[in-house]
Amino acid sequence: MKVYAEVYGCAASMADGEIALGLLKQAGGEIVASPEDADVNIIVTCAVKGPTADRMVSRVRKLNSLGKPLIVAGCMASGEPRRIKQTAPRAFLLPPKEITRITEAVEKLLGDGLNTPVELEREVKLGLPRVRRNPVISIIPVSEGCRWSKCSFCIVPKTRPGFGSFPIRLILDEVRRSVADGCREIWLTSQDMGSYGMESGRNLLPELLESVNNVEGNFKVRVGMMNPIYLKPILPRLIQAYKGEKIFKFLHLPVQSGSERVLKSMNRGHGAGLYVEAVECFRKELPELTLMTDIIVGYPTETERDFEETLEIIWRTKPDFVNVSRFFPRPGTPAENMKPQPPETVSRRIHRLNEVCEAAALERNERWIGWTGEALVDEWGIKGNWICRNYAYKPIAIKTDKNLMGKIIEVEVTDAKTFHLEGKLKKILH
């Protein structure tokens, strides 16, 4: 039985795809590189933005046109099932929380041909076989769903309903297993890392990071996105946990807007001031921290003054990376029926915001010129460069004929671009 898969979306979605292929391979499936060669096709979808959802529908239509059994997994399966069924009426829909049932789904489509899967604890996506997209990186989910689930623009409560954290002991087992498999970079991921463990009565994120940092082995940890809302009570201990040797000094903290009024309209549960406070506390203790944030431009209630406040917060906090998104209404969200901003207004604001983001990022990157130190090679870049990451998770592009994947090297930063550094290989360390 031959299987072809396409996987789209966030790190959690990537992990779902790896688990699905791992389970199918364990059950005797053969993974092929072309949908034309497959007995069954799988697409793990993303639904977070309108244009992304449109692209997913286009890919579903293309795969469905082949006339082969099709499984549509991921967030579109739960977020926009009617739209998928209109596009591919005979497709089997598999929501994110049910990805561990992938072998059962294939059996239903094909009749048989797979070994009977081991009974699984359905929503705990740990301790399962994987087919990794990158042999150096292990993506480990630590929870499922979003605890807040009230943001007016967000479809996640519909695509991944409910909230539950996975036990620390199982996460640590997964880290150890990944390191034993040769992974040197661990991504801890969820819909909101900042709420990890809160159903227990307290926030367990610092404890999780401290525990992972104490696992034996030569590896680094990238901590996934955390919303500001739950961070204030744990900031001191969280920052201390970030000082762990194995933790990348990388913080993904989405603010979405610099306007208190817009944040209230978005029902984010936090103000711009909390975001600024968290960034400043982190940077006071870890000045070279790499900061990523998210901004939505053109939210229906956003005025020119609100947008100026967003520009101001970017200049104040100077994030290294900004995910800039145009507002698109998502089905079933409170903001779905709000009057949209004129497209030309949104385009103008996005252009201005990108200019500010690029200037701030370049200013941050220029500070790294002349730095020499250790970095982990985790990627082959599209322009023929190896990409390595230093302790602050800064991407450094280097050219060499040597195969460096997974190597720890000594690199010197020679130049700064807007969103990456350029460097030269000094030597391979191990």
Automatic annotation (TrEMBL):
Residues 1-111 form the MTTase N-terminal domain. The keyword Iron-sulfur applies. SUPFAM superfamilies: Radical SAM enzymes. GO terms for molecular function: 4 iron, 4 sulfur cluster binding; metal ion binding; tRNA (N(6)-L-threonylcarbamoyladenosine(37)-C(2))-methylthiotransferase activity. Binds 1 or 2 [4Fe-4S] cluster. One cluster is coordinated with 3 cysteines and an exchangeable S-adenosyl-L-methionine. Its EC number is 2.8.4.5. PROSITE patterns: MTTASE_N (PS51449), RADICAL_SAM (PS51918), TRAM (PS50926). Residues 366-427 form the TRAM domain. It catalyses: N(6)-L-threonylcarbamoyladenosine(37) in tRNA + (sulfur carrier)-SH + AH2 + 2 S-adenosyl-L-methionine = 2-methylsulfanyl-N(6)-L-threonylcarbamoyladenosine(37) in tRNA + (sulfur carrier)-H + 5'-deoxyadenosine + L-methionine + A + S-adenosyl-L-homocysteine + 2 H(+). Its cofactor is [4Fe-4S] cluster. Residues 132-367 form the Radical SAM core domain. Keywords: 4Fe-4S, Iron, Iron-sulfur, Metal-binding, S-adenosyl-L-methionine, Transferase, tRNA processing. InterPro entries: Elp3/MiaA/NifB-like_rSAM, Methylthiotransferase, Methylthiotransferase_N, Methylthiotransferase_N_sf, MiaB-like_arc_euk, rSAM, rSAM_horseshoe, rSAM_sf. It comes from the Archaea. Belongs to the methylthiotransferase family. CDKAL1 subfamily. NCBIfam families: MiaB-like-B, MiaB/RimO family radical SAM methylthiotransferase. Catalyzes the methylthiolation of N6-threonylcarbamoyladenosine (t(6)A), leading to the formation of 2-methylthio-N6-threonylcarbamoyladenosine (ms(2)t(6)A) at position 37 in tRNAs that read codons beginning with adenine. This is tRNA-t(6)A37 methylthiotransferase.
